[in-house]
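in:
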C-alpha cells in the first residue's frame, strides 16, 4: 500500500506462478459502511480512487486465470484514507471554505483555541482535537472455538475518555463487523472454530469522531480434537487417530504431547488427523495430549487428552510340543520390555467348527486338555496387559489319534492275512492306517496303508511268524497315533510233491518230499488205513523218512503235513503199498490122494497172504532122502534134468493161483488140489508121468520170476515151502518105491517172455463178494432168510469201511459252513477241488469223485447246494465240464429244506461270473427234465446241461418199485452216452450219500451184469465207501440194490428185454409216451 490520500490509494502485490503474466486481478473494495465495489487490473498494481477521506477500507485481491472465470484464493489488507480538517461554520451564516490549508495545529486535551487569518477579510478560530495514539500490546487470551478475549494498552492522558472500535474480519469473509469498548479489553463472540480472524482496534477521542491509527492482531480460534483412539501397528510404533469437524481442519497441525506412567516422553507434530507415534513401548500405558495448531503454527486450540495402553506385541516362536491324544502343550516367546507383566489368552477350538474356548496363562506356555483325538485344532495366543490385548499369533495341529484296539487276524492263509481292528475316535473316519509288517527281527520289512479299519496283507511267506503293527494317521497324514500290534503266523505251506516207495522185502515205506515254500518247523507223516495208524515227526531240514512197523503187501494212506509256529498245512496225501516178501511157510504137510501108477493128486491148505497176495503155486518132487524142504537151487531143475540124473529134486508144474479151484474141507479151511503127472507143461517145466520105483514129494512156491530160458530165477523169486509129504508108493510099483512131495507158493510171478521182462499176474485184495448170475437167486434167498439176516450182516460189515481216511479240508474252520451235515464230510483223497480264486479254501466243495464201471472219475457225488454254496455248485459244473446232473431229492421234504433251488425258474440267473439260462422244462409224474445253457464270463462258448430230477424217492427210503429207478437210470445213461467221455455225471440228493450212492451203485451193477455175468453188490458198495462216507446210507437201500439185481437177472433170463428195455426207451419217457400195449411187469421190474 502506498500514496494513501483522502480519496485514493496505490496497491502493489506479487504472484510467482509461472502463468502469472496471463493473470488478471479482481480487487474487491469494501468500507466500514458495508458498501462494496469491484475493479479489474491486468497488472500487479492498481490505483484505487473515489475513496472517502478518513474511512476504513478492506482491499481483497483475487487472481483470475486467462479464462476470466477461474479465481484463485484471495488475499486482503486494511487501510484508512487521509482525513480532511473541517472548520465549524459560524451560526447563522453559511459558507464553504476550501482551498486553504492550516498548518501547525496542535491537538491534545488542553489545547486552547487559536486565531487563524485565512485571507484579508476572513478569520478563523480553531479549537483543535488531536488524534488518539494507536493502541499497543494487543493480547489474545482465552481463545476458544467461538470467542476470543482481547486486551491492549493506550498510555494517552485522554485514554480514559477514549472509545475503542474493534473490527473483526474472518479471513476473507465480508462484511466486516465491529463492536466498541470503553475499556482496554473486549470479548469477541460469535466466532467460528478454527478460523483466522483479523482484529483491528481503532481508538476514538472523546468527540467520538477523531480516530487514532488502527492496530491489527491476527488470531485463530481453536477447534479441539475429539474421539481419539490408538492402534498399535508394530512394536515401538503406534497409530494415533482423532477427529476434528472444523472445515479448516485440513490446514491444521497437531502437537501431541506424550508422557508415560513415570515421566514425559516428548512432543511430536503432525499435519493430519492421524499420527504415527514412534518410540512407544508395547504394553506400556501412555497419556497423549493433542493440541490443534492453527495455520500460523502458533495458535493452539484447546487440548484433548486420552490415556492409552499400547497393545502388547504379538507372541513369537509359537510352537506345539508334547502332542497327545487329548492334550497338547504350547510354548511361545514375547520380548517386550513389559512382558513380565503380561498374561496370555489362548483361544482354541476344532478347526472344522465355530466353537471356541478360552484359557489364560501367566507364563509363556500352556497345556490344553480335554481335546478330541485325531482332530485338527486352531490355537490363537493373545498377549494381555492393563485391559489391552495384542494381536494374535496362531498355529494349528492335529491331536494324536488313539491307538487301534481289538486287532484280529482272520482268513489266514499261506501268503496273506486279513487284519481287522477298531478305533472309536470321532475323527476315525478320516484316519489313514499304516500297517508295518516285520519278521525274523527285520523291521520294518514293508508297510502299506488302508483308509478302512481292515487290510489284507499279501505277499507273506508260508509258515512264518509276523508282527503286524498298526499306526493310525490323522487326516494330515503326518500326525501319528501310538502303535498297537498283533503277532500271528501264516499257514504252513504243504509240500509241493512227495512220493513213497516200498522197501524191498521189508514192511517199510520210504517217503521223500520236496521242500515247501516258506518256513517249517517239522513235518508230520501220517500213515494209516482202516485198521491202523501211525505218526512220524521229521524236523525241518530233512526231506525223507522211513516208516516202519508196517504190514507186508498192505495199502496205506500216507499224508504229509507241514508244521510251523503251531500251525499245520493242508495235507498232501497219496496211497502206497508196502513190499511183498516170502509168504509164511505152512507147517502142515500136503496130503496125497488118488494115487495111480504114474500120477496122484495133492491137497494142501492155502498159504497165508499176509506177506503179499498169492500169485502162483509149484509142485516140487524129490527122490532125495535128506532134508525136510528142498533147497532154493532146485527151483531151476526140470524133469529133463531129473531124467538125465543131474538132480534128485525138480519142479513138475507151475500154476497161476487164480486158476486154482478151492473147496471146503471138513475142518472148514480152504483146501486146494493139484494133479501130478498129467503130462501138462508150464514154462520150462513138464508135469510128466511119475516113474515107478521113484521117490517123490510135493512143495509150494510164492513169488516167482523167470530167466530167459523160462526157468525160475531163485534169487529174485519170493518162495516158501510146505514140508515134504510122507513118502508114497505108486500102485504099480511092486517095490513100493517111496515118493515125497511138497508145495511151493509164489507171491509174485516175474517175466514169462523171452526178452527177460517181468510179467505180472493180476491180483486184487478180496474186498468183494462176486456172485455169478446163475447163482444169484439162491444167494438172494439165503441172504433174505430170517428177515434179511444175511443182508444185514453184509451191510454191517461195510459200516466202518473208509472212515479213517482224513477229511482235513472239510474240517477247516473256513469250510465248515459249506457243509450241510457235519457227519457227511468228503475224504481228502477223492474230494473235488475247484480253482482257487482269492483264498486257499476257495477250492472246497462237499463233493467227491466216484468210480463207475468204466473209469475212476465217472461220477461226482455231492451234497445238495446250500444257499451259500450255490455259486460254488455252478462253478463245479463249469470247471469240471459237467453235462448231466442227477437230482434225487425234492427241495423241501416234510417241511424241511433238503436242497437249495439252485437253478433259475425262468430266464437267466447270474452266479458270480457264470450265467445260467433255463431253456426248457418237462414235468412228468416221477421226474422232471430241465435243460440249461451255462456260460462263463471269460469264455467264448457255452455248453448245455441237462438236469434229471427224480421226485419219487423218499429220504432214507427207497422207490416204490425197482422199475422206477431202473428206467430212470436208463434215461440218464442214454444222455450220458452223448456227452464227452471225460465229462463226469454229477449226482446229488440232500447229503449226497444215501440216494446218491444207491443210484451210482445200480448203474455199476447193471453194467457188471451185462459185461461180466456176475454181480457184486457188496464190492460195489465197499468201493463207493472208500471214496465218500456212508454211500448207500441205509440197510433198506442195500437190500433194494440186491432186489434190483435179482429183478434184472430174472428179466434177462426170461428174455423179455436186454437190460436196455426196448419197450421203454429213454426218449419215449422223455417225450412223455406211455408203455406200449402188452407192457408187463415181472417182480416189480418192467420186462
Amino acid at each position: 500500500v502506498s500514496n494513501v490520500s483522502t480519496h485514493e490509494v496505490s496497491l502493489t502485490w506479487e504472484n510467482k506462478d509461472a502463468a502469472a503474466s496471463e493473470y488478471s486481478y479482481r480487487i474487491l473494495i469494501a468500507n466500514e459502511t458495508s458498501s462494496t465495489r469491484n475493479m479489474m487490473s491486468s497488472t500487479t498494481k492498481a490505483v484505487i480512487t473515489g475513496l472517502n477521506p478518513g474511512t476504513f477500507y478492506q482491499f481483497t485481491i483475487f487472481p483470475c486465470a486467462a479464462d476470466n472465470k477461474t479465481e484463485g484464493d484471495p488475499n486482503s489488507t486494511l487501510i484508512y484514507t487521509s482525513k480532511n480538517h473541517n472548520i465549524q461554520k459560524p451560526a447563522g451564516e453559511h459558507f464553504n471554505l476550501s482551498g486553504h490549508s492550516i498548518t501547525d495545529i496542535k491537538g491534545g486535551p488542553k489545547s486552547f483555541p487559536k486565531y487563524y487569518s485565512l485571507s484579508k477579510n476572513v478569520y478563523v478560530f480553531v479549537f483543535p482535537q488531536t488524534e488518539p495514539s494507536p493502541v499497543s500490546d494487543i493480547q489474545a487470551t482465552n481463545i476458544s472455538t467461538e470467542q476470543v478475549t482481547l486486551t491492549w494498552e493506550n498510555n494517552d492522558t485522554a485514554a480514559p475518555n477514549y472509545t475503542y472500535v474493534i473490527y473483526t474480519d474472518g479471513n476473507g469473509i465480508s462484511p466486516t463487523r465491529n463492536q466498541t469498548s470503553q475499556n482496554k479489553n473486549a470479548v469477541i463472540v460469535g466466532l467460528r472454530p478454527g478460523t483466522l480472524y483479523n482484529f483491528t482496534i481503532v481508538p476514538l477521542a472523546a468527540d467520538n469522531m477523531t480516530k487514532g491509527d488502527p492496530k491489527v492482531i491476527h488470531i485463530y480460534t481453536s477447534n479441539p480434537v475429539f474421539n481419539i483412539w490408538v492402534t498399535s501397528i508394530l512394536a515401538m510404533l503406534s497409530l494415533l487417530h482423532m477427529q476434528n469437524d472444523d472445515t479448516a481442519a485440513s490446514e491444521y497441525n497437531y502437537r501431541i504431547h506424550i508422557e508415560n506412567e513415570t515421566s514425559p516422553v516428548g512432543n511430536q507434530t503432525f499435519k493430519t488427523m492421524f499420527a504415527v507415534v514412534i518410540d512407544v513401548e508395547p504394553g506400556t500405558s501412555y497419556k497423549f495430549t493433542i493440541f490443534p495448531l492453527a495455520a500460523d503454527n502458533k495458535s493452539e486450540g484447546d487440548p484433548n487428552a486420552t490415556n492409552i495402553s499400547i497393545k502388547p506385541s504379538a507372541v513369537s516362536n509359537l510352537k506345539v510340543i508334547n502332542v497327545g491324544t487329548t492334550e497338547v502343550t504350547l510354548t511361545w516367546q514375547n520380548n517386550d520390555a513389559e512382558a513380565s507383566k503380561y498374561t496370555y489368552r489362548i483361544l482354541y477350538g476344532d478347526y472344522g467348527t465355530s466353537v471356541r474356548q478360552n484359557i489364560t496363562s501367566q507364563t509363556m506356555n500352556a497345556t490344553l486338555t480335554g481335546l478330541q483325538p485325531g482332530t485338527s485344532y486352531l490355537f490363537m495366543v493373545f498377549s494381555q496387559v492393563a485391559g489391552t490385548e495384542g494381536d494374535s499369533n496362531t498355529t494349528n495341529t492335529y491331536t494324536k489319534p488313539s491307538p487301534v484296539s481289538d486287532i484280529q487276524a482272520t482268513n489266514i492263509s499261506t501268503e496273506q492275512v486279513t487284519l481287522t481292528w477298531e478305533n472309536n475316535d470321532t475323527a476315525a473316519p478320516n484316519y489313514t492306517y499304516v500297517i508295518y509288517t516285520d519278521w525274523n527281527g527285520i523291521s520294518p520289512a514293508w508297510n502299506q496303508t488302508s483308509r478302512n479299519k481292515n487290510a489284507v496283507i499279501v505277499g507273506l511267506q508260508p509258515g512264518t511268524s509276523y508282527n503286524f503293527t498298526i499306526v493310525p494317521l490323522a487326516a494330515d497324514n503326518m500326525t501319528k497315533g501310538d502303535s498297537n500290534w498283533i503277532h500271528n503266523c501264516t499257514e504252513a505251506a504243504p509240500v509241493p510233491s512227495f512220493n513213497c516207495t516200498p522197501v524191498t522185502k521189508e514192511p517199510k515205506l520210504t517217503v521223500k518230499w520236496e521242500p515247501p515254500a516258506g518256513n517249517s518247523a517239522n513235518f508230520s507223516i501220517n500213515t494209516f488205513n482202516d485198521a491202523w495208524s501211525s505218526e512220524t515227526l521229521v524236523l525241518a531240514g530233512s526231506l525223507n523218512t522211513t516208516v516202519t512197523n508196517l504190514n507186508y503187501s498192505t495199502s496205506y494212506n500216507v499224508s504229509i503235513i507241514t508244521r510251523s509256529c503251531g500251525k499245520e498245512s493242508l495235507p498232501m496225501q497219496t496211497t502206497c503199498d508196502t513190499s511183498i516178501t516170502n509168504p509164511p511157510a505152512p507147517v502142515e504137510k500136503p496130503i496125497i490122494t488118488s494115487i495111480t501108477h504114474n500120477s496122484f493128486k495133492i491137497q494142501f491148505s492155502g498159504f497165508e497172504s499176509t506177506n503179499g497176495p498169492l500169485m502162483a503155486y509149484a509142485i516140487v518132487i524129490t527122490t532125495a532122502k535128506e532134508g525136510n524142504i528142498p533147497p532154493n537151487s532146485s527151483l531151476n531143475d526140470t524133469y529133463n534134468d531129473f531124467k538125465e540124473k543131474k538132480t534128485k529134486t525138480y519142479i513138475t508144474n507151475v500154476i497161476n493161483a487164480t486158476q486154482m479151484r478151492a473147496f471146503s474141507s471138513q475142518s472148514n479151511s480152504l483146501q486146494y488140489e493139484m494133479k501130478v503127472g498129467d503130462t501138462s507143461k508150464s514154462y520150462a517145466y513138464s508135469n510128466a508121468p511119475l516113474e515107478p520105483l521113484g521117490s517123490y514129494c510135493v512143495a509150494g512156491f510164492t513169488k516167482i520170476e523167470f530167466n530167459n530160458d523160462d526157468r525160475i530165477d531163485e534169487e529174485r523169486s519170493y518162495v516158501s515151502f510146505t514140508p515134504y509129504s510122507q513118502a508114497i508108493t505108486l500102485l504099480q510099483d511092486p517095490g513100493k518105491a517111496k515118493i515125497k512131495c511138497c508145495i511151493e507158493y509164489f507171491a509174485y510171478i516175474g517175466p514169462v517172455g523171452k526178452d527177460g521182462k517181468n510179467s505180472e499176474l493180476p491180483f486184487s485184495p478180496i474186498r468183494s463178494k462176486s456172485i455169478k448170475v446163475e447163482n444169484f437167486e439162491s444167494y438172494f434167498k439165503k441172504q433174505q432168510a430170517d428177515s434179511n439176516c444175511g443182508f444185514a450182516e453184509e451191510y454191517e460189515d461195510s459200516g466202518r469201511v473208509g472212515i479213517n481216511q482224513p477229511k482235513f479240508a472239510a474240517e477247516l474252520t473256513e469250510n465248515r459252513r459249506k457243509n450241510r451235515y457235519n457227519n457227511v464230510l468228503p475224504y481228502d483223497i477223492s474230494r473235488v477241488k475247484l480253482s482257487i480264486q482269492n483264498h486257499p479254501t476257495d477250492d472246497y466243495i462237499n463233493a467227491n469223485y466216484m468210480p463207475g464201471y468204466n473209469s475212476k472219475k465217472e461220477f461226482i457225488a455231492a451234497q445238495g447246494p446250500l444257499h451259500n454254496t450255490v455259486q460254488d455248485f455252478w462253478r463245479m459244473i463249469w470247471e469240471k465240464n459237467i453235462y448231466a446232473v442227477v437230482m434225487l431229492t425234492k427241495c423241501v421234504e416234510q417241511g424241511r429244506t433238503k436242497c437249495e433251488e439252485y437253478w433259475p425258474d425262468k430266464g437267466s440267473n447270474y452266479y458270480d461270473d457264470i450265467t445260467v439260462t433255463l431253456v426248457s422244462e418237462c414235468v412228468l409224474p416221477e421226474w422232471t427234465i430241465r435243460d440249461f445253457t451255462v456260460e462263463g464270463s471269460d469264455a467264448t462258448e457255452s455248453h448245455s446241461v441237462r438236469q434229471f430230477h427224480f421226485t419219487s424217492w423218499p429220504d432214507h427210503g427207497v422207490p416204490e418199485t425197482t422199475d422206477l429207478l431202473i428206467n430212470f437210470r436208463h434215461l440218464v445213461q442214454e444222455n450220458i452216452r452223448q456227452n464227452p467221455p471225460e465229462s463226469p455225471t454229477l449226482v446229488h440228493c440232500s447229503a449226497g450219500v444215501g440216494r446218491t450212492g444207491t443210484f451210482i451203485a445200480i448203474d455199476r451193477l447193471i453194467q457188471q451184469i451185462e459185461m461180466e455175468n456176475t454181480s457184486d453188490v457188496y464190492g460195489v458198495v465197499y468201493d463207493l465207501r472208500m471214496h465218500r462216507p456212508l454211500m448207500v446210507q441205509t440197510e433198506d437201500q442195500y437190500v433194494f440194490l440186491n432186489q434190483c439185481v435179482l429183478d434184472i437177472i430174472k428179466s434177462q433170463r426170461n428174455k423179455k428185454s436186454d437190460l436196455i428195455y426196448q419197450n421203454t426207451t429213454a426218449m419215449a419217457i422223455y417225450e412223455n409216451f406211455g408203455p406200449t400195449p402188452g407192457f408187463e411187469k415181472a417182480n416189480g421190474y418192467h420186462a
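note: The longest strand covers residues 388-398.
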